Structure formats: C-alpha cells, structure tokens
Amino acid sequence: MDGFESCRTTVADIDELAVSMTRELTYYWSLGEARDRGTKLCLIYKIPQHIREVDRNAYEPMVQSFGPYHYGTPTLQAMEKEKWNCLDYILNLNREKRLRDYLKVMQRLENQVRSCYTEEIKMDKKKFRQMLLLDGCFILVSLYGTAGIVMPETEAYGQANNQEFVGGNGVGQKVPWPRHEGEAANQNSIAEHDADYADQIGRWYTNFVAHDLLLLENQIPFFVVERIYELVAGKDTENQRLTDKIAEYVEEILHYYPKAIQEFERPKDFHHLLHLGHMYFRPSQRMEEDSHRHARPRFFYRLLLHFGRSYSKLSHQPEENDQVFSLNDQTYCLQAAQQRWRRAAQYIEAGVEFKKREFNKQSPHSLLDIRFTKKVLEIPCLPIDENTSSLFRNFVALEQTCPQFGNDVTAYIVFMSQLTNMPDDVMLLAQRGIIVHELRSDEEVSTLFTKLSKDVVFDFNGKHYLKSVWQMMEAHYQSRLNRWIAWLRHNHFSNPWLALGAFAAVIVLSCTALQTLISVFSYVYPPTDE
C-alpha cells in the first residue's frame, strides 16, 4: 500500500512539473512570436556582473529608472513623482483621450516590449503597463516631444493648471511642466523653461537625468513613446516632429562632441535613446571613402616587388639581398598577424605629426572621423570629464551586445587606449589640443582608456573603420627612412640655430671635399706649359 501511495505521489509530482514547464514554454514561445512579428526589435541586455564591477556607476541610474531592470530601486523612488506630473500633463494635453485609452495601447504593446529585454521580466501585467506609460510620458514631456501641440484653451483647464493632483504614490504634487498655448511652444520658450526648471529642482538633477537617459539597462523601446504621442497628437500627425525634438535634446546632451549629422538629416528611425546617441558618433561615409582611397599598404607593394623579382629571373643565382628581403617579408607578415596600435610617442619618433582636426560647419565630422594623409594624423578634439567613462562604456556595451550596430566606437576606444598607453602620450595629445580633460592628471586619462578597453572583444584582423588608417600608419612606422629622417629632425633640426649650424657644417664639408678633389685632380693631371 505504501508503494502504491509513493507511486501516486511521484506521478503527481511529474504531472505538476510538466504543467509548470509547459507554462514556461508557452511564455517563452509567446516572446519569440512577438520578436518574429517585430522585424526591427532591438534587444536590451543587462551588463554582466564582472564588467559591472569595474565601474558600477557607469551602468546604473542615479535618479531615474526607465524600464524594468531598475524598477522599484529604493534610491530612485524620490523622483518617481516627476513621472506622474508628466502623465497628468499628457492627460490634460488631449481631453478627448482618457487614461483608459493609453492603458489599452500599453496592453497591446506589452508582449512586444517584454520580448525586447533579454532578462525575464517578473513584473505582473498591471505594474508593467503602468511602468511603460509613466516612463513613456516622462520621456515624451521632459525631452520636449510635445512641443508644438496646441493646448486646449478652457477655463476649467486654466484652473486645473494650478491645482494639485494625487500621484501614484499618494503625494499631492504641482505640475511643473510648461503650459504653452498654441504654437508658443517654440525653442525659446523651451530653453527658458529648461533654465527655470533646472533652477527649481537643482542642476544636479538635470545632469543626472541626462546621465540616466543614456544607459543601456535604463531604456524602453522608443515605439512606446511614439504610440503615446500618436494618441496625444492624433494618428494623422507625422512622427517627424517628435523625433526631431527628441534628437535635438540628445544633441544638447552631446553638445561637447563634434557631430557629422546636421539639423536637416537628424535620425528618424532609432530603437531607444542610447541608440540615437550612438548614431551621432558614427564616422561619416565620406571619411571612410577617403581613407580607402589613400590606403597604400606597404606590404602589398613589397609582395608585388618580391614576386616580380622571383618570376623575372634576372639572375639565376639567388642573391643575398633577395634572401634578406624574403626574411623581412616574413617578419612583416608576423607583425601583421599581431596587429595593434602603437603609442603616440612611438609614432612621433617615426615622423608622424599629430594634429587636431578643426571642425568645419560646411563639412562637419563626428568624433570618430580620424584621417591620415601625408604623414599627418588628424584626430577630432576629445573632451573628457566625469561623464565620459559612462557614455563610452554604454556605447561599447551596445555594440558588444547588438552586432547590427557595428563596432565603430569599440574600434575608437581600442585605438585611443593603445595610443594613450602612458601618461606621456596623453600629454603629447593634450599639447596639440586633441585631448582636453578635466581630470586630475594625465595618468588618470590613460587609466580611463585602459579600463574602457578591458574585457572588450575586438578583432583587429576583422572589419573595422580604422583598418586602412592603421595599415598606412604601420607602413610609415616600419620605414627606416622615415624614422631616420624623424631622428635627424628631432635631434639636429629641432631649433633654427641647430639647423643653421648643421647647414654651415655641410657647406664647409662640401667645400673641403671639393678642394681636395681639385688638388688630387691637379696632381694627377698637372698643367703643362706649351
């Protein structure tokens, strides 16, 4: 009897486990279906723990959470009321739409949004939909996506503009967001409100929000914001006004960095805010074409010359020079297999001139537009402050987790980390205006780039936008003639007096040699008297 009961218990346990696993399979299958339907979905990853430990503040929000990964963090609850203020503003902006209408849209988007996150989201449906609506409203309002939408002019609304409402946390709050009438919501009014609001809540908050908006783990799919905007402005309204305003806000966050994208070509199709910021750092196509056109790898020239000598059979016996040449080719191939950038000091010793690439409004360039022509390496100015590490870490994390976005920023970080391997290298670039930093020492800048490139997966032999630049610079560095000329210039022609002395010595030596030759010629062929 005991055996029978034990068997029944085992069968029941197996059935219960099967039901549980079937439920899990159904859940993950539904996510897969949502991903298949969304042909352009971008996955939002969590940063691996061992990478997060290097600089936790670079990946985690300071004042505002967006999306499910940091939802409910106790240290971020103080500013949640701002999201409810934004929701109130959205509800008053279009009186024809009720809160229920927005929640229905969030319900339809729920599975598609969940499928955008690689981690399992264990929030229940109600909390998840509420989070999407609040986060979407905050981004839409605080980034001025509603600018240009006509505010209803009613007496009731005029009274409601000054009264308090009860937010989701039960706290009465005054709505601080601007209530512009008609087309008065222009750029000037936005800028004035931005300054007033920053004075009201503090500069720290505005700076930290800008930091939090560009974190990989702190993103929501932008189509959530677009759906809310369509409800507020109407389905007939084009989203271009929305994307332009959002892009304009991100441009302001990144205003220290040179950007190739001009106002008339602002991005219209992006997955989330970090992706939008990443698009402003892409190298221009014009720069890539120039680099490939000027690329003349010395290896191919030498290889062609070697084959020419081999097959022309000008000499039946192998010469010593040919054997040395073949050995040099093998050495060059070995170095090519161990590709890496050299230090700035090493390139300067080989005669490479570093120059800050000046920004031209008629032909703008991005931060990553590096070019090498006629022994001159032009690098755009890189400003470095306390936010630089976080920005580049999240751009690199985006590229490492989403290969469809390329590896341009990763290639740039690897380039800078090897170029500024020592504090002296940072000093050389800073003297030329290429690096402008607010850190305590040049050593901190060098350490910053070293840490940025830690645990980064990058194939130097693979395809990246700086490959042709590396080939040209490596060919220049490998040339003994270039290094010899650079040594002469640095050690004997570093100032005009040394150059003048060397020139005088050459003249004296030439005159002495000429006089000696004349004397020898006179001795060998003495003049004869006729």
UniProtKB/TrEMBL annotation:
The keyword Transmembrane is assigned to this record: yes
Pfam families with a match to the protein in the record: DUF247 (PF03140)
Tagged with keyword Membrane: yes
InterPro entries: DUF247_pln (IPR004158)
Sorted UniProt keywords: Membrane, Transmembrane, Transmembrane helix
Sequence intervals crossing the membrane: 132-151, 497-525
Protein name according to UniProt: Uncharacterized protein
Organism: Ananas comosus var. bracteatus
